[in-house]
Design brief:
Elements (H helix, E strand, L loop, with lengths): L6 H19 L3 H6 L1 E8 L7 E2 H13 L6 E12 L2 E13 L5 E15 L2 E10 L17
Parallel strand pairs: 1-6
Antiparallel strand pairs: 1-2, 3-4, 4-5, 5-6
Length: 147
Amino acid sequence: MDWDADTDTEAQIKRLIHTWTEALRSRDVEALMAACTQDFVSFDLAPPLRHGAADYREGMQQWFASFASPIVCTVSQLEITSAGGIAFSRSLNRVSGRKTSGEEIDLWVRATICYRRIGGEWRVAHEHVSVPFYMDGSFRAAVDLHP
């Protein structure tokens, strides 16, 4: 199998990523889920270790409700690889916004997203978002890192 991202596939996936980030910005869980496959799975920042589509939807609704402002997600260092009907992207994403508590959020996360082409359209099949942790025994999330 030859792994590469052809220009058309890359453009389609970039549009899907744009749709995804706009759904985050507007806190639109329906638009977010419309970009996903029916068997979507997420390894997200919040517990538990694995989210199915229904758990993810509920978790995102709760997270969206905790923001008073749009959620800005800036995708950087994006790389897309594909072969046939499967693709993945990896990027460093900056997430920022103002919580209902007044707290300002501004952190960088690592994102790996897997896509499947279904009926000629790319959909998000798996999302893995993480932050590293300090291995000094504190196990604190390293949310102060910048690329």
